[in-house]
């Protein structure tokens, strides 16, 4: 017979799967709002703890919102309802909904953000891009993943796969590289990943899928790739790694269903159960895109699915 867990039980299970000690030193993870003594019957998972998602949680009547991005990453001196973040805290408290954050600790975890993204893109034979030891099952964990597609693809076809696998956003999918080139080895990192381009190059990846790539990082990476290809005597089509840039929200969204299923599994292990939902609100902040004339379908990529 299963029972209803307390918030303290749910936090303990989440902390075990996404250890706060594995979060980056600058990060702010764990329980943000809520009384550990309260019961938790239903949980909503979302990428961003923005007002729209909080409204969804309160409309659904859930007891806990598990978010990927921190609400209070930057220090604050007040959570009064006179600021956006204060209004969110106030709404959660009034609505009896707790808030828990799993951010960089979920990025690196087994079945975390990186694994979910790699699975969405059909990658096999994976390993961490930046290893950080072993997870609970003994599998290597760490930031990002490097794997391979089951069959070689053109960069164009691979970009189509990325677009189809992730939620549709106004940005869509941006690509840097020869669309007719063949790719097989893929590096992925959900969220902002331009700081790991050197690690991607060292891993020998043909293409790197991440988000928030900046102009200078992309320009320098492509110049380095072209220089290296020339030094090897290769054609420019062999100038890897190619880059595939997605919306930040989209690259992290696949993890939500993993986290929901794993929470149910882990709570059943201690004789308790909860209902889970994945947020249907698209929290990518960009709302519109105006394509340059003649470039509307330059890659032929398709839109992804809606969350």
From TrEMBL:
* Family that this chain belongs to: Belongs to the GTP cyclohydrolase I type 2/NIF3 family.
InterPro entries assigned? DUF34/NIF3 (IPR002678), DUF34/NIF3_sf (IPR036069)
Give the quaternary structure: Homohexamer.
The GO molecular function terms of this record are:
metal ion binding
**UniProt-recorded name of the protein:** GTP cyclohydrolase 1 type 2 homolog
Q: Where is the composition biased (Polar residues)?
A: 285-307
Could you confirm whether the keyword Metal-binding appears in this record? Answer: yes
Task: Return the GO cellular component terms, semicolon-separated.
Answer: cytoplasm
Q: Binding residues for a divalent metal cation, per the UniProt record?
A: 68-69, 107, 248, 252
Key words, A-Z:
Metal-binding
Q: Where is this region: Disordered?
A: 276-307
């Amino acid at each position: 017979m299963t029972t209803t867990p307390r918030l303290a039980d749910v936090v303990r299970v989440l902390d075990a799967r996404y250890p706060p000690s594995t979060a980056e030193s600058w990060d702010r993870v764990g329980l943000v709002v809520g009384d550990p003594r309260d019961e938790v019957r239903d949980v909503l998972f979302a990428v961003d703890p923005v007002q729209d998602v909080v409204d969804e949680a309160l409309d659904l009547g859930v007891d806990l919102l598990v978010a990927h991005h921190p609400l209070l990453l930057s220090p604050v001196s007040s959570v009064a309802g006179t600021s956006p973040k204060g209004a969110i805290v106030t709404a959660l408290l009034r609505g009896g909904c707790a808030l828990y954050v799993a951010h960089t600790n979920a990025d690196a975890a087994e079945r975390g953000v990186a694994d979910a993204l790699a699975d969405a893109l059909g990658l096999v034979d994976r390993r961490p891009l930046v290893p950080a030891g072993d997870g609970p099952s003994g599998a290597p964990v760490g930031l990002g993943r490097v794997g391979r597609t089951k069959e070689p693809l053109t960069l164009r076809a691979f970009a189509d796969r990325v677009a189809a696998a992730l939620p549709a956003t106004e940005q869509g999918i941006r690509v840097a590289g020869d669309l007719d080139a063949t790719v097989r080895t893929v590096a992925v990192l959900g969220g902002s990943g331009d700081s790991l381009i050197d690690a991607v190059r060292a891993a020998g990846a043909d293409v790197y899928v991440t988000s928030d790539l900046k102009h200078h990082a992309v320009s320098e990476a492509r110049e380095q790739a072209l220089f290296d290809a020339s030094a090897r005597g290769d054609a420019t089509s062999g100038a890897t790694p190619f880059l595939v840039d997605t919306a930040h929200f989209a690259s992290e969204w696949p993890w939500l269903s993993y986290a929901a299923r794993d929470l149910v599994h882990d709570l059943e292990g201690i004789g308790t159960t909860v209902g889970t939902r994945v947020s249907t609100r698209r929290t990518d902040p960009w709302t519109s895109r105006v394509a340059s004339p003649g470039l509307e379908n330059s890659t032929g990529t398709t839109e992804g699915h809606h969350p």
